[in-house]
Specification:
The complex is a heterodimer.
Chain A (H helix, E strand, L loop, with lengths): L1 H22 L13 E6 L6 H14 L3 E5 L8 H12 L4 E9 L3 H11 L4 E7 L3 H7 L2 E5 L1 H15 L3 E6 L1 H4 L2 H17 L2 E6 L8 H20 L3 E5 L5 H11 L15 H5 L10 H14 L7 E2 L4 H17 L8 H12 L3 E5 L6 E6 L2 E2 L5
Parallel strand pairs in A: 1-2, 1-3, 3-4, 4-5, 5-11, 6-7, 6-8
Antiparallel strand pairs in A: 9-12, 10-11
Chain B lengths: L12 H7 L1 H17 L3 H20 L2 H5 L8 H17 L4 H29 L4 H23 L22 E3 L12 E4 L2 E4 H19 L1 H11 L1 H6 L4 H27 L1 E3 L7 H11 L9 H26 L2 H49 L1
Antiparallel strand pairs in B: 1-4, 2-3
Helix pairs in contact in B: 2-13, 2-14, 3-8, 3-11, 3-12, 3-13, 5-6, 5-7, 5-11, 6-7, 6-11, 8-9, 9-11, 12-13, 13-14
Classes of the chains: A alpha/beta, B mainly alpha.
Amino acid sequence: MNRLRNAVVLLLLAVLAVTMVGCGGNGEETGGESSFKIGIVTGTVSQGEDEYRAAEIMVERYGDRVVHVTYPDNFMQEQETFIGRVTELAADPDIKAIIICQGVPGTAAALDKVREMRDDILLMVGVGHEDPQVIAEKADIAVDRDEVERGRTIPEIAKEMGATKFIHYSFPRHLSIPLLSQRRDRFKEECEKMGIEFIEISAPDPMGPDGIPGTQKFILEDVPLQVQTHGKDIAVFGTNLSMQEPLIRAALDAGCMFPEPCSPGPTMGYPGALGIDVEGMSGDMKAIMDAIEEEIIAKGGAGRFATWPVALNMTIIQSLAELAFQAVEGKVDLSDLDAITAQMEKEADSEMLVRRYLDGTNYYVVIAGSYIFGADN
Amino acid sequence: MRKRFQLKGGFSAADLLRQNAVPILFLFMCILGVIVSGQNIRYIAQELVSRLARNWFLVLSLIIPVTAGLGLNFAIVLGAMAGQVGLIVATHYKIPGLLGLSVAVVLSVPIAVLLGISVGHVLNLARGREMITSMMLGFFANGLYLLVFLFMVGTVIPVDNPEIMLDSGVGLRGTIELKYCKYALDNLLKVRLFGVNIPVATFGVVIALCLGIRWLYKTKLGQELRAVGQDMAVASVAGINVDRTRITAMVMSTVLASIGQIIFLQNMGVINTFNSHEQIGTVAIASILVGGASVTSATVGHGLAGTLLFQLLFIVSPSAGQRLMGNAQVGEFFRVFIGYGIIAVALLIHSWERKVSLESASRQSALKGQAKATGNM
């Protein structure tokens, strides 16, 4: 018995050793370049595919000059590992800038640790989860999505589509989040200005007893009812991620309008709702947009559905990386709003609205111009 | 369990290997990791030193309940919450440096004592299921913590401090920077050795705790804790107040955890108000298990060695994984697989070890019985 167990333990060790040594040759060599490098920290694809692909694109563009590492999937529980990965990048003297996107909890502490080690390094944060004020003080530049401003742009798109009523699906837990309730108030205000009737509907909370299926079922049943009462010229909007696919499907069937998913971008909602297989298109937003447009027109939704043509997190990473290369060489000033906007528009190949979120800091928020599917037809 | 005289000539090498299989396995993986990751040794040393300074105290707070037979105390999360309360108050009143930390400790100790007493009472009612109960208590206390700091601060508790509170004036910010007592203990006495900064004062505190625990076991209370841990019925017959002793153990562990969390956070420099405490339970428990501790026996040595090995593996494994696989995210998956896989193996080996010890002990007594029987014939 004893011997058997010892043998098993030894065998396990041997297997592990062989695996590690055997694979050792395939390791990717970094370094060896005289010019400086930048580091990008993203999640893995299981946390957010857009960010990971964007970092891959940058590695392709600059080769060894971009070092891409990932933070733990379980980032809430493994902040030390996340911080370790960031300081590990900073330990390489060739690395002159670090981009963290998304700025998961632990970013502020990680930025502090890096600053302790070095002061000749640029720190950039995209889509921060922590308090903007804290991040703004520590990072050289931070970029995020402009939720409050979307309170103005979304009703504008609805108006452009010809909507007379705007239906807002949400639930109390979401509306207790300051940013979302601010945005709702802005919706109301803008709709009033444009003569659109604003209707608020409370949907079941996906974290509630019926879970996500309960919320999705409610949406699928409620949208046709709303169309029966208010007619087809109504725009629907939902604040929760799980609502987007049923909203698109129901709006398409019932013939109403859908101006924007809660977190807009080609990969959000539409591919799932329309059954589009994005395989082979990963990272190619243009191809995904074309596939969606074809499907929307075929199903009779031309001019009534829209989204952003850019995956914002991708644009943020790519722009920050480009800005990092320029800033290290002293070619760009990170407090120059126009330069930041120009860079983001170049990466996104679309119109972007960038503004400073906190006065006197480099904390920027951004929204992209929308694209209405089949509007030209 | 440790001394098994039936083996002629004392310990054999295989026996020693088996009894320390978990730490040896970890050490082996760490060495491999260091080689494969190709990281700068000075970086590894610096990162390790700072992680040890952060974690040792917290891990050591687990030892006393194990001795008293309460198993691994998942309720150190409660102690951590108490520590955070102290730090938040100290930050609110802008108390600088070491004084701020002392105030935090003074404030958190009574809260931790109170929490420890309540947890102790509950665990006395849930004998035999202490570990899962303490874990559930952690979740419950988290709800209470959220209620107090998200809702009651600014409404029931009159606080007005925009630096740490949300703009709406109710509830704390998700990220609170410890502006006034950041690094206070670490920077008190810093020695640079071979290019590695060593926070001597922090390690001094840890050493004091180690000596304190040793001293405790020599006192009457320490003996009682051990007696209760070995057999509650026997201890009770011997005139020890079992319930009170178990509560004392929980109080000591909770208080130590609160101080441990204060040390941890002064090194991080930032509190994630609503989830800093959640991270420590699992990591601390995994660390002490890696050191060779079990649910029934844990020593200072287990805690110190375990934290060292666990943190070392987590420093080198992300890079090692990335270099082996040549892909950022596969490296991350590999790290999780190896890191947590080994912990699972560790637990398996523990139960094997226990089973074998029990088996050989019963075989031994059976042999004795047989010998007696033949002797009598």
